[in-house]
Amino acid sequence: MATMIGSGLSNQTGAAVGALAFPVLGPLGVVAVRQYVAAVVLLAVARPRLRGFTRRQWWPVLLLAVVFGTMNLSLYTAVDRIGLGLAVTLEFLGPLTIALAASRRRLDAVCALLAGAGVVVLMRPRPSADCTGMALGLVAACCWASYILLNRVVGRRIPGAQGAAAASTVSALAFLPLGVLVALRHPPTTAAVLCAVAAGLLSSAVPYLADLLTLRHVPAQTFGLFMSVNPVLAALVGLVVLGQEMGGPEWAGIAAVVAANAVSIATARR
Asked: Is 0.90 surpassed by the pTM of this model?
C-alpha cells in the first residue's frame, strides 16, 4: 500500500513540478526533457537489444513511441490550460473505456453511465471553460487507451521491458530537435531545467520501478483498483503545489469517474 501511494503521489507531483517550468520552457520543453529522462532510465533498466529486433517487432514499437510523445505532450498542454486535476481525470477515461468496453455486464453499463455523467459535469459549457484544454485531455485519454493496447502487442513480441525502452528511446530522439529549438528560442534557467528533470524522474522512473515492485506482491485487480485514486491525487497535488482550486461540481465529476472505475474493478470476475 505504501508503495502504491508513493507511486501515485510521485507521478502527480512530477507533473505539478514540471508545470512550474512552463513559464520558461513551455509544455513542449518540459515534455522533451521528460522523454530524455524516461529513455535514459528505461535503457539502463531494460537494456534492449535493438539490433536484434525484427520488422514485426519494430512496427508496434514505433507506434508506441508516437503514442508516448503524443500522450505526454497533450496531457502537459492540458495541465497548462485546465489544471492538473481535470486534465488527469479526462486522461483517465482512456483505461476506463478499455476496461468497460471489454465487459458485457449490466453493472459495467451503469458504471459507464456514471463516468459519462461525471464527464458531462466536468466539460459543461460555461464562460471560463477552456474547450481546447479539455479536448487535449481527451486526446491524452485516447493515447493512454492506445498505449494499453499497443503494450499488449509489444509484450507478446518482445521480452521484458525492452519494447518500452525502445519506444521511449525513439520518442526521445524525435523530441531532440524540438528540445533544441525550445532551448534556442527560450534560453532555459537552471531552476526550470531541474524542474523538468524532476518531472521525468518523478513521473517516469519512480512510478515505473515502484509499480514493478508492487506487482510482485499485490494482485493485479487490487493494483487496478488503487489506480482509480490517481485523479483525486492529481487534484490534491494541483491544489497544494500549484494552487489550482476546483469547485464542488468539478469534485463531483472527478468522484463519479473514480467511483465508476472502482466499482467496475472491485466487482470484476476473475
From this structure: no
